[in-house]
Specification:
Elements (H helix, E strand, L loop, with lengths): L1 H9 L22 H23 L7 E7 L2 E7 L4 E3 L3 E2 L5 H15 L41 E6 L3 E13 L9 E6 L8 E6 L8 H14 L13 E7 L6 H10 L15 E7 L10 H21 L1
Antiparallel strand pairs: 1-2, 2-3, 2-4, 5-6, 6-7, 7-8, 8-10, 9-10
């Protein structure tokens, strides 16, 4: 213990006016900025890989990738709600258990079904669509904005029966690891022949009110109010809508259960579960497409009337 005390005193910086005028400076530690930057670059690269996974196909519930650093691997999982990072697994020759874990992981990944991997090509239990292998096809691997173009997606609905949608150009697409990840595509269907359609695919919070419910309420209000029928001309016609909730055996449910049991250093963390939402509606045109001054004036007037209608009946 004596030697420890002397060592600590030798590295202590004397106060001015003390018995010893000698000052022993601490050894400077090398800066760690380069290591931090390297870690940041690796995390950004992982994020890019995950975003690529979510870019194609449009119906993807989750994605998992592994980051290998020499003899160590770490897994990253994203499911539109949260990003999970596993502990590192050392698979060097000195760690036999780590090597066994790596082999088991490789075998497990090779046995995953498309749905287990996050690619939703078959949701028969969700009564949405079935046997849509074309969701995996893309003619332009590097062109996410051309995803699914020309592919056909078959839907099954109890009310309107079976129908197919043929995708065209992407109007908007914002893939995200934790968020709505909304994609809007042009579409055609023999079910609504001659009508320009759009299909909106998104992952909103499960507790949020669906857009089609808000539109249905607006239509009901416009139809019931005397003299408010004009508002129907400015509401999009929703042809098909459905939410897909995932069962207890799904990856989404297992991740949610895992987080509910976890303890967090900063207190409680509220996990926001997400629902796959599909809406098919007639296509509306942007205001910038208007060129006639009279038409623009009429649109502005209608917008003002719509805001008044919302303030009174909203």
């Amino acid at each position: 213990m004596e030697s420890v005390r002397k060592t600590a005193k030798a590295h202590h910086k004397s106060t001015p006016g003390g018995t010893s005028g000698r000052v022993v400076e601490k050894k400077s530690t090398p800066p760690r900025a380069s290591e931090t930057n390297q870690q940041k670059d690796a995390y950004l690269q992982v994020g890019r890989y995950l975003l690529e996974q979510f870019a194609i196909p449009a119906f993807r519930s989750h994605a998992t990738i592994g980051l290998v650093d020499r003899d160590r691997i770490q897994f990253y999982h994203a499911n539109h709600s949260v990003i999970l990072v596993s502990s590192g697994i050392n698979f060097s020759r000195q760690d036999e258990k780590g090597l066994d874990k790596l082999i088991a992981i490789v075998i497990a990944f090779s046995r995953l079904t498309l749905r287990d991997s996050g690619i939703l090509h078959d949701l028969r239990d969700g009564r949405l669509f079935r046997d849509n292998e074309k969701l995996l096809i893309s003619d332009l691997p590097s062109g996410a904005m051309k995803m699914q173009e020309g592919n056909e997606l078959e839907f099954v609905d109890e009310k309107i029966g079976a129908f197919a949608l043929t995708y065209s150009e992407v109007i908007a697409h914002e893939p995200s690891l934790a968020g709505r990840a909304t994609a809007v595509l042009e579409a055609k269907s023999a079910k609504w022949e001659g009508m320009d359609l759009v299909v909106k695919i998104s992952w909103p919070g499960s507790e949020r009110t669906a857009e089609n419910e808000l539109l249905a309420k607006a239509v009901e209000t416009a139809e019931s109010g005397p003299g408010d029928e004009w508002a129907l001309k400015h509401l999009p016609r929703v042809l098909f809508s459905q939410d897909v909730a995932f069962g207890q055996d799904s990856t989404h449910s297992k991740v949610e259960s895992l987080i509910e049991k976890a303890k967090f250093a900063n207190g409680e963390y509220k996990y926001e579960g997400r629902t796959l939402r599909i809406i098919v509606q007639e296509r509306l045109r942007p205001l910038k497409a208007l060129t006639n001054v009279k038409v623009i004036a009429q649109v502005l007037l209608d917008v003002g009337c719509g805001m008044w209608f919302d303030s009174v009946f909203g």
